[in-house]
Amino acid sequence: MAGPTAMRLSSVLALLRPALPLILGLSLGCSLSLLRVSWIQGEGDDPCVEAVGEAGGPQSLDSRTQLDQSDEDFKPRIVPYYRDPNKPYKKVLRTRYIQTELGSRERLLVAVLTSRATLSTLAVAVNRTVAHHFPRLLYFTGQRGARTPAGMQVVSHGDERPAWLMSETLRHLHTHFGADYDWFFIMQDDTYVQAPRLAALAGHLSINQDLYLGRAEEFIGAGEQARYCHGGFGYLLSRSLLLRLRPHLDGCRGDILSARPDEWLGRCLIDSLGIGCVSQHQGQRYRSFELAKNRDPETESSLAFLSAFAVHPVSEGTLMYRLHKRFSALELERAYSEIEQLQAQIRNLTALTPEGEAGLSWPLGLPAPFTPHSRFEVLGWDYFTEQHTFSCVDGAPKCPLQGASRADVGDAVETALEQLNRRYQPRLRFQKQRLLNGYRRFDPARGMEYTLDLLLEAVTQRGHRRALARRVSLLRPLSRVEILPMPYVTEATRVQLVLPLQAAEAAAAPAFLEAFAAGVLEPREHALLTLLLVYGPREGGRGAPDPFVGVKAAAAELERRYPGTRLAWLAVRAEAPSQVRLMDVVSKKHPVDTLFFLATVWTRPGPEVLNRCRMNAISGWQAFFPVHFQEFNPALAPCFYNADYLAARARLAADLAGQEEEEALEGLEVMDVFLRFSGLHLFRAVEPGLVQKFSLRDCSPRLSEELYHRCRLSNLEGLGGRAQLAMALFEQEQANST
Prior knowledge:
The chain contains 23 helices and 28 strands. Mean pLDDT is 82; it is low at 39-71. The longest helix is centred in the middle third of the chain and has 34 residues, at 317-350. A hairpin with a 4-residue loop joins strand 18 (447-460) and strand 19 (465-477). Among the domains are: 101-286, Spore Coat Polysaccharide Biosynthesis Protein SpsA, Chain A, CATH 3.90.550.50; 382-477, Nuclear Transport Factor 2, Chain: A (Roll); 495-537 and 550-656 and 664-695, Spore Coat Polysaccharide Biosynthesis Protein SpsA, Chain A. The chain starts with a helix and ends with a helix. It is 39% helix and 20% strand. It has 738 residues and is α/β, with parallel strands linked by helices.
């Protein structure tokens, strides 16, 4: 028995021998952890309980006992909300933007000191060169009632004394923007500022210090420590410094006499706060360049000029634009150099990846082309030549290449020729003969891709010429997405629905009124309806029946069912009514701030549609043209403000006078008026909530040729989808063949 037992034991040990270190380690760890727990528990009482006991006095023992007893079955106690009925209720108002509620601030505000003589020249040049780089740009002048140039925010103080102008400027910045910005940059209008560098400088500085940063200059007759920032080159003030300076402005204005506002500010800061100007802070140096008279910025190549944040003095606006052109070219060269360095690094690192150089995508650093997962996701190419495109919006097989598309193709061809010459010069120089074939497609991951077949003439250094056909590929990459600043709008705006009705549409009007009651009156939407009854030349006259009797009766019934509802209607007589003529009648009956929603008898409005109309139609900024989504009817139901329509209509009347205007009105719709005679944004989008019932439109032969063509095309496109029409034709052919 001993022999088999020993053999079993040895076999078990042999199996456990590889896991023996693991078992010993786990046993040792568990033992040490148990010993450590026993030591901790034996050190003394719970210090938290002792603290409770000390604070509780005689009740400390009871509280400790309760803690020990209820340690295992602890349950949270929910304290219900209680409001004292004797105290008045105060409604909590939320801020409009979450940025305000969180206390976030913008980084930089720029203030420009200008004058009566330079407001319309140098100040305008400053605005055109740097305004789009800063969140807020203000102009301060002592001229009272100054005429403000377009696109500029000018603050007039009414006194041109230097100390007064600077004092009032600082007071205005503190009062209106002290809580919204971290840095304030003050400059003169004869200063050119390299805006991206200044914004980067402000982004690298700490906002919690009192800082007065600029080009430090010494006061005449003062010590070495007494310095002020030269106003010609601009200077930065931190928000905390502005807050500390505000109480001393009145005293400085009465005690300090100076003919220059920058010296006055520097003396005020030194006398009241003991803070002088510095040119370097936290490793960041404020670099400036003094431009000599008659110096050409195109030929200036010194390091001080190339690295400057500000250039002064700038004597005229053309010099300001030349400086901006030079610095913009320098920034582009620097960006291209950084791109080449990054591409070289990507190429070097790609050799270490499993795919190797085969995994590189062209161009380097941009996302790879979109890879479709099914045939429904394949991105199609559009074919074009220099004169025509073969993918038209209206479905035609061929249409002229014009407008923005023509400019886009021309730019692509010129860029291809420029890149070829840059690569092969001076050995070869290429000249374009013509574009043989062109293809383009939009890749949502990359941008617009082009493939061009070019017929070129290659010229060698010796003058030999030869015709070549080459294929080139180009990519217009997607740039950085920017959020456009839009005016604030609200969903509380009242919408005025306008429904033009002709005699042929009178039978469908009761259904529209019922839908209007269900979608607008029942939810108590803030909207009104005006019925525009369009009579023909022989309709509704004396002795003739009124074709809109049923419509008027249905409107009266709706007013009876919904007390307080008022459905207005207007009667007009027109032989060939167009949208523009009808809107001319309606717009005169309403205030200029009215928000119009131009509907058709087949439209089914609802709360979602009206809210999107309120949010997307912005007075003086944008008109909204939602596309009906359902039942194959591509009619438009525009949303726009009456003031915008009147402005576009006045411009139409000014551009087209007399008989030409009358002829144009016959062939124009409201969208054409906004598109051709207004500077508003036109926002077109498919609106799934805007239901359009299908109907064959009555295309009156009295319409203009273009409107009649649109009407006929709408009827044809509204019959059904391509697959449905193809199936119907196929079934019809099968039936005819049998």
